[in-house]
Amino acid sequence: MTDSCKVLMIFPLFNAGSFWNYKEACDLTGARYPAAPLGLITVAALLPKEWDVRLVNRNTEDLSDEDFRWADMVMTGGMLPQRNDTQHIIDLCRASNKPVVVGGPDVTSSPALYGNANFQVLGEAEEIMGDFIAAWRRGAREGTFQAPMGKTDVTKSPLPRFDLLKLDQYLHVGVQFSRGCPFSCEFCDIIELYGRVPR
Length: 199
Ligand code: B12
Ligand code: SF4
Known about the structure:
By secondary structure, the chain is an alpha/beta fold. Helix content is about 25%, strand content about 15%. It has one domain (about 5-150): Cobalamin-binding domain (Rossmann fold).
């Protein structure tokens, strides 16, 4: 069993031209992108302390060949408007034999679209990263890990690794204090992702 691992976290590009990219507000304030990748830095906090983690946000900085060579494993994923770039990152990893783990809301909603990744981690990572890490340490290089719906006690989710962020790149940095929603707005898939009971 080896306990060292170099994890490259890559936050995929959002589609261009979305209102939510707030390009003009970013230009005014000198920020590179509105919001920080809270999901990935939460996952980073769930990894063993002795693993090294680098974060590259493709919306704010370039992914270098050196970062890519450095990594033993790539972790990526995000929401629907990041799907194209997530699939591009998975293809890059596959082409250079870099094991790639995909997680987050879009793969959780549509896992069949990410069949090319080595690992899929579906749902809330707090419940399932332990199983993934144990499998990785046993030498597994493929697998799907599905968290049970709505089980995470939000008070026990770890403090995200805010230290991985370059804070001056963002307009704002969120914190998460609840999950789940009792409503059913027809355009929204939050109850499929996090369940009906607010936690
Ligand atoms: C904050 C937020 C925003 C903010 C900031 C976005 C940002 N860049 O961070 C703003 C307001 C800008 C925004 C906009 C939009 N959003 Co939004 N947003 C959210 C919200 C409320 C919280 C996201 C968050 O930070 N959560 C906290 C973190 C800790 O949770 P998480 O990301 O889910 O991560 C957990 C797991 O998913 C997993 N995980 C995440 N990533 C990874 C990666 C790996 C490798 C692994 C193993 C695990 C893993 O582990 C984490 C811990 O359990 C979610 C709803 C929600 N409550 O989750 C919607 C949500 C992500 N947004 C959504 C959508 C659709 C949009 C918009 C397209 C809306 C629109 N029509 O314009 C836009 C697009 C933005 C753009 N730039 O184009 C959808 C995505 C649906 C999907 N299935 O992909 C969601 C789920 C809401 C919904 N159900 O409709 N959004
Ligand atoms: S169902 Fe979705 S959009 Fe509607 S209130 Fe809940 S989280 Fe918001």
